[in-house]
Every structure is written in C-alpha cells, then in structure tokens.
Amino acid sequence: MATAMRNSRQKAANAAHASGARSVVQRSPGSSRERSTLTLRGSYVRQGNKKGKKTTSRDKVLYTSDLGPCVAVCGFDGNTAFMIHSDSTGTSGIGRTSLKDGINSLVAMGTGSGWTISLIGGSVPGCMSYLQQRYPDASYVPLGESEGAYITGDGVVAKSKRRLAGRYGVDSITIDE
Fold first, then answer.
1. Residues of the chain with pLDDT > 90: what percent?
2. Per DSSP, which regions of 9-115 are E strands?
3. Most buried one in 18, 32, 147, 173, CB count within 10 A?
4. Residue 60, phi then psi, degrees to nearest 5
5. Which residues lie across from 86 on neighbouring strands?
6. pTM for the whole thing?
C-alpha cells in the first residue's frame, strides 16, 4: 500500500513537472544535490628539514600537521611541488640540517627564480626573511598561522582540507596514503 502511494505521488509530480506546474513533491535543498569528493594520493611530511618531500604528480598532495611554532615551507615551480615541515632555519632542529640544505636536497632552486614559496605556521616572518636572503628571486606568499598545511602537485596550497576542497570547487577531499 505504501509503495503504491509513493508511486502515485511520483507519477503526479512527474506529470506536474512536464506540464510546467509546481510539483506537489517537495525535496529538501540538499537531497537532490550530489556531494562531490576529490580523492588525492597523499604523503605525510614529518617534522625536520631533512624529511621534506616533493612530487611532480598532479593527483598527489603533500601535507603536515602540528605546526605550532614550526613552518610549512611549500614550493612550486610549475612542475614540481615540495614541502618541508621546518622546526628551525639553522642546524639546531631535528636532523641537524639547515632549511636551505633541506630544500637543496629536494630541488635545485638556484636564486629561486620561477619558484613560488608559500609559508604556513608559526614563525612565518622569520622564516620568510631567512629564505628571501638565500632565494632572492623567488615569489613569497605568507599564509599566516595554522596547525596544518597542504600542497598538491598542481601547486595548490591550503591551510586545511576544507580550504583545499574549496580551492578545487568540491565539497570534500579524501586523501589515500
């Protein structure tokens, strides 16, 4: 009986829609909209200038968390994206490697020409000053404080998964390890 009533309501709604009349069946605003999710392959970047990672894959995302006073240094040159979760610009941090040496172990930046460096986390101004002295021709984007950071192989940088989803125009991002 319930199925017959539902079928009858659906037929009436379809007939009303076809005639241009207002439908008798009301839907909630979110019920007819499909949720869009983008799935990316991910690689977690651990703290330390020697533990940075790079990618040239467009469907990959590098990400980190627990930045606190640390800074996520995210670089992109149009082909290669990299991230370092830096706890110190000098050699006193985890791994005893300077930030410049950590970057140079991942990519050859020269003077920084053609590179965009985005900085997210705690000590962004000090880290940016350090990098500007070593890579004067790079473009710098200070994104301020955050607990996490993301950069995709397309060079899209965000401070959260929600913001990354927004940059791609989807409702959510799923990261497969």
1. 72
2. 37-44, 53-55, 60-64, 71-76, 81-86
3. 173
4. -115, 145
5. 71
6. 0.79
The answer to whether residues 53 and 43 touch, using CB atoms and an 8 Å cutoff, is yes
Element (H, E) at 10: helix 2-19
Helix axes 124-134, 99-106, angle to 10 degrees: 60
pLDDT band at 33 (very low <50, low <70, confident <90, very high): low
| Torsion angles phi and psi, residue 113, rounded to 5 | -55, 130
Q: What is the mean pLDDT of residues 49-75?
A: 95
The two three-digit tokens of residue 110, written as one number: 């020269």
**How high is the pLDDT of residue 25?**
31
Residue 47 makes CB contacts below 8 A (sequence gap 6+) with: 64, 66, 70, 85, 87, 94
Mean residue pLDDT across the chain:
84
- What are the distances in angstroms from CA 8 to CA 2, 21, 116? 10, 17, 60
Describe the strand order of the beta sheet including 71-76 as a list of residue ranges.
53-55, 81-86, 71-76, 116-121, 139-142
